[in-house]
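User: I'm new to structure prediction. If I give you an amino acid sequence, what do you actually give back? Let's try with this one:
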Amino acid sequence: MDIRAIVQRVPGWAGREIRIEPIAAGLTNANFRVEVDGVPHFLRLPGSSTDMLAIDRENELFNTRAAAEAGVGAKVLFHDPRSGALVLDWIEGRTMSNAAFAEPGTPVRIADALRRLHAGPRFRDDFDMFRLSEYYLRVVGERQMRIPQGYREHAAQVPRIETALAARPLPTVPCHNDLLAENYLDDGIRLWIVDYEYSGNNDPTFELGNTAQELLFDAARQEELCAAYFGPERFARDGPALLARMRLQMIMSDVGWTLWAAIQASISRIDYDFWAWAEERWDRAASAMDGPDFEQLLAAAGA
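Assistant: Good question. You get back a string of structure tokens that encode the predicted 3D arrangement of the chain. For your 303 residues, that looks like this:
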């Protein structure tokens, strides 16, 4: 896609001084900083074959606007339906990292950002990692893509996790569902959340478990995040069950995103070792399902 042709289609930008700089970030799309008469904006071009990853760009657009309304996402300035390009307000702040989230107090800041998102307008579609994993498994099977060893042998454990979570379901809320560190921006006051490709209404404990897994939180920080999100009164009453749900969702996050990475290893043009990423997440998921605490988590989540 011709980035300059897309820029010229943005209302009010034609004839102005434009400076375009690629942003070396993102595992799916091409991202740019576009300065218009010195004012920065964020421009995203979708990657190729992203429909295979179950990304619905109309759902993403709807949810990005909803997140901005909730005060946790950037405002949409322009959408080009022909290219899928998205222009957003520029959020000035540092892109977060796992090292940055190791600082004291960050689980409380994450919980605050997630509560704002989850209290905002409903998203267009729902998100279900169990169904998404089934879809990804069909994709890799139909296209004969390789997946980590032992994946199919552990398949019987996944319905057990779904059954345990369904015993006492939580109301769904608008969730991001893909909260690795780089999808948070820190403006020095609060955290913003970006990139709503996989967003949808979901169990909030998936959101908590997914980000705790991506940020490599240990047990103490997992508990701190869960307690900060649900509040002291709720956590004092239901803490063991909520933590069990969150930790089962951590496993499901790895179960699903393992297959995502395996697909990316076959189709992506981005210079990134997706296969190593898939193996790392699968090793973690398999270890958890084979671990001594797995049966206790299943029992506690449904208690």
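You can read the tokens as a compact description of the fold. Here is one thing that stands out. The CA atoms of residues 60 and 197 lie 5 Å apart.
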